[in-house]
Fold these 2 entries.
Entry 1:
Amino acid sequence: MSSTSKGFLPAIPALVLLGVFFLYPVIRMLGFSIETGNLDWYAKALGEGLYLQVFWNTFQIAVFVTFFCLLLGYPLGFLIATTTPFWATMGFIFVLLPLWTSVLVRTYAWMVLLGRNGVFNRMLIDAGIVADPLPLLHNLTGVLIGMVHVLLPYMVLPVYGAVKRLDPSIVAAAQGLGASSWRIFWRIYLPLTLNGIFAGSVIVFVLSLGFYITPALLGGGRVMMIAVLIEQQVRETLNWQFAAALSAVLLGFTLAVYALAQRAMRPEAAR
Amino acid sequence: MKGRHGLIAACAIIYFFLMLPLLVVFPISLSSAPYMQFPPPGFSWQWYERYLDDPQWIDATWRSLYVGVATAVLALALGVPLAFSLVRGKFFGRGILDRIAMAPVIVPTIIVSVAVYGLFAKLKLIGMWYGLVVAHTVLALPFVVLVMVAGLRDFDRGLEQAAEGLGASRLRTLMRVTLPLLRPSLVSAGLLAFITSFDEVVVALFLSGANMTLPKKMFDNILMEIDPTIAAVSVMQIVLVTIVLVLIGRFGRGLSATAR
């Protein structure tokens, strides 16, 4: 074996599988979008108000979901990283248990909780807080709650890692010099864990962009996201060329976000 | 510290939010009401009985189980050697190989599903369980590679050198030293691959056709009617996942290593 190919052999079976059942089908499908020999399907995807609106919706939802995941995920990751080993294990278990529970189970549960006759509305009406059921399902609220629930663990884990890597002697020094808890948080923890915040936000944002199950079920047909549109084009309209153009735009945007994130992360890592 | 109590209180609420959907399905699955009602008016096993008596549910459960096991086996068979290449190999294009191995988690699942659906429709593979296994293996491979690469990075190669120095062949060293020492990583990777397949919906939605997997059957049920049978199925799924997590904690490489 030549020195330029040492240890390549064991990778070949996996590479064949990925080539035949992942790279080839994806490239083949994306190719449908330019079958006509022009960019008409892209013009339709990015030019018509209706479809542009779907892209804009998807982007907005992804931004909201990322924001709420950060808001809820930071305290959790922070607490798990700074507590005793026993409580850290417990903390992890209750983050991983929902992460590993089927998205369908959780989506169903949210339908039970948020529906017109659901648990929340029953309680609110019985307590006399509202007279009519609140619209929590089949709208943006329902989709956001469901998506934040699914994606929250992906924010907790990077934040945990970043807080854990922080040198505790810096915090001890600040405490010794009389800094308040808030001041320590704003001046030490927050700036020194930006890496984790950034990594978690990128993961959550990118996963949100391609989300299908939650908007399809909790949106009740009223919240259109790009993945739902692609599915409809393939299964209902049978318009493969347009579905391919939409997929290409979604994939291109996803990869661009990743590439930008990696560039932004590199100088941080080099320091 | 004053701020600490506030933090703990905030986290308690966030944990409540995380666990609430998992907890709410338990009482509903034991409800005696003929439709979704909360709190349940009485206790009954009827939804579990309905699940067990319905050949469609049982059929879907079996299919999901063997597709999951086959996916785990195939993903390990391909992913473990790939991880060895990535960690120990020295060849041109290793960085590119690493990207290709991770690509299935970066490319949105809807795109993978639609693309494979297009190919499989042409090859008449829709509804074939092995078609689903192949597609699920693509999705599970990055997780297997992640766990195995982490395991191999921490591996003490001195033990292999000792075995070879004592005259063991390379194969014997691999079978008697390397793989047994990597067992915790192998357990985690295999269980992770199984769960990836067992819980997978989007690919199954496109590829399983009339031969439904459990998640596909659940998806159709949720779309059509909210019937507490699905609460019973959900409870069983939560119990299964808990068992798998306990197994990983007990025999696998720590929970946090798996999470990363």
Note: The first strand of chain B starts at residue 90 and ends at 91.
Entry 2:
Amino acid sequence: MGLKKGKPTPATDVPGERQQARDLDGLLLALQAEDPLTRRWAARDLEAYPEAAAALLTQLRSERENSVRQVILTALTGIGNETAIRGLIDCLYLEDVMLRNAAIEVLKELPDQVAPFMGQLLKDSDPDVRIFAVDVLESLRHPRVEEWLIEVISEDPHVNVCATAVDLLGEVGSDQAKVALASLKQRFAEEPYIQFAADLALKRIEADEA
Amino acid sequence: MKRILVIDDAATVRLYHREILEKAGFVVDEAINGLEALEKLEQAPFDLYLVDVNMPKLDGYGFLRALRQLDVPQAPAIMISTESSASDRHTALVAGANLYILKPIKPEQLLAHVQGLLGEWQD
């Protein structure tokens, strides 16, 4: 007797979406599937599972398909818990430029969650990470933003960290920043950009006061 | 007169570059990210692009990759970054930058790079 063909598998509405069960275990399995479409759908659905943040971060680092990376980043933004934030901050130290920049953009969208790490980031030994931290301050609505920026331009030894901070102080700075801006000009007297940006910030602060 | 597009999300940086370049006789336009830059160049291409790396919506690498695939008159691009690692430089050049220079840049350095690259491009 010949083998009977089984019932055909019902067509799925979205290719790759229904290959695994849609519970956490099934989605975690699908996240490692060979087919990028399956991984993408799994990543999208894992946004509903905060406990999947670590697995998403692991996959993010090895993922080569840009569209899947984007969905993983969106899922991590949606989860936004401590694991997700710490994992994204770790990405700032990677040599993978694309992933590092993508992580920066995601972190900028999560200012409240990043705020508790700000003090540590502003003191990081890597100036690029400190620049990123200043960039995040731009989107941070936090009462300490000006204080942090003044601290940076008063203490940070790296010209580009100070340059990034002074750009932002021009927008959010008040009378309190004037002394630090004048000191910064003296500290980097040979840097035309610092002179230009500090003068501009001082003018804006004075115009706001008038 | 040569037209230069300055692409940077920091208003102070755009103004700094604008002042230097305009004093030297260039016509300068600005874009706040890669996406706005692509819109502007489709209206009228530029003779040179001065491109920041980290910008929202479309970063400098994304802009350069898109620019190099567009069917528009091509022009040299200088990527200006705070990141000094070899991988950053490599990524910029692969994306389509003709030159990768580090911030902060002094006016005379910027003009030397711009004029040098425009001269090479014409040759």
Note: The CA atoms of residues 137 and 144 of chain A lie 10 Å apart.
